Backbone:
């Protein structure tokens, strides 16, 4: 059974990297429902090519109403019928277990095998970094996080739960295939983007089995990329070095848990959660793009969420589709808004989410006409 579609026009042919595209839009919960429509607005203004957006109402409302999180058949449908997924955020105080979020997001990540979590850290305006004397030229790097293994696979359990003798075990799962493909992706990303430095980060001095595998694979794979300066840092050292001097990094590759943490640190170096984009990628297959921020229930429904993270996420999606020209237009619009003090409240401005979305859409439209 195919999940019900909420909207949609004539079906366009599925040609990844081709002249047309079908995008599944999943706004989700909270501010996801506010920022994603703005991103779609800006995308529509930027794109002259045929692009179809099909929206799905998966999230807390549907879960509470129908008991359905990720509908049956959803993964196959997304894989077969869509080029990419534009995702908002999941999380709602009415679902304290967050079960629907786990079902949907982890379901898509694992079942679509989105093994790359690409999280760029790019300072777009000098005033946005909390670091002293650092400018745009110092903060521009890519965090490549392994996205399908590690501590997130859910292997583990309790023993004597709720008693004073309780034991809780969570297994860190690392496969040769999984480690190799993410390290290789990081080197390929560097090579394709003319970047010269790849840093692999682990905790192999303490995690002497799991991260010994990372060490061995890294040493093997780096041999194949002689033009790239590769180095290793323990994750604690990386955290320090990122704050001390982020300009020493081009590409960082690390495991699922460390990537989650280090990319949030990176997001703050570049202006905060409201601005940070990410891609959950399986090269050559349907991939999912989402802003790094969550559903932010504390500001949801007020129309004040910053849509820039969702717009930069859309630019990443366009690059994945091979539409670099339009992606550049979106990035230019975001830069222009920051230069011209068009801010939402999180960055010290007064603009509403939709107002900023309108401004960005007008900007890309005018740019396309010139
Ligand atoms: P999750 O656990 O899903 O990450 P969360 O509510 O703990 O959700 P976020 O939603 O990522 O964390 O946001 C943390 C805080 O950052 C929010 O409460 C909000 O104040 C701020 N924030 C996040 N994203 C935005 C945004 N786009 N615009 C403005 N403020 C934001």
Residues:
């Amino acid at each position: 059974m195919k999940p019900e579609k909420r909207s949609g026009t004539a079906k366009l042919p599925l040609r990844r990297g081709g002249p047309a595209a079908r995008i599944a839009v999943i706004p989700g919960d909270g501010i996801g429902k506010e920022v994603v429509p703005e991103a779609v607005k800006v995308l529509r203004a930027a794109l002259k090519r045929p692009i179809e957006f099909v929206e799905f109402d998966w999230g807390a409302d549907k879960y509470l109403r129908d008991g359905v999180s990720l509908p049956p058949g959803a993964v196959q449908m997304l894989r077969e019928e869509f080029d990419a997924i534009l995702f908002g955020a999941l999380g709602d105080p009415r679902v304290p277990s967050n079960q629907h979020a786990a079902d949907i997001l982890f379901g898509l990540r694992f079942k679509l095998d989105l093994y790359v979590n690409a999280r760029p850290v790019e300072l777009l305006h000098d005033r946005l970094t909390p670091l002293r004397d650092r400018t745009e030229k110092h903060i521009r790097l890519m965090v490549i996080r392994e996205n399908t293994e590690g501590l997130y696979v859910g292997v583990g359990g309790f023993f004597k739960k709720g008693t004073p003798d309780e034991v809780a075990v969570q297994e860190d799962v690392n496969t040769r295939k999984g480690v190799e493909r993410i390290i290789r992706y990081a080197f390929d990303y560097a090579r394709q983007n003319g970047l010269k430095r790849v840093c692999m980060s682990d905790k192999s001095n303490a995690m002497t089995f799991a991260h010994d595998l990372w060490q061995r694979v890294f040493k093997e794979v780096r041999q194949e990329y002689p033009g790239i300066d590769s180095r290793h840092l323990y994750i604690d050292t990386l955290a320090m070095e990122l704050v001390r001097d982020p300009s020493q990094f081009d590409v960082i590759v690390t495991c699922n848990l460390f990537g989650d943490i280090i990319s949030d640190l990176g997001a703050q170096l570049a202006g905060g959660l409201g601005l940070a984009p990410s891609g959950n990628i399986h090269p050559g297959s349907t991939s999912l793009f989402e802003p790094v921020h969550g559903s932010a229930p504390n500001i949801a429904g007020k129309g004040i969420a910053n849509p820039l993270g969702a717009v930069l996420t859309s630019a990443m999606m366009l690059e994945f589709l091979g539409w670099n020209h339009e992606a550049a237009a979106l990035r230019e619009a975001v830069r222009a808004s920051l230069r011209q003090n068009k801010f939402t409240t999180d960055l010290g401005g007064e603009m509403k989410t939709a107002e900023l979305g309108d401004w960005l859409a007008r900007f890309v439209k005018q740019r396309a006409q010139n």
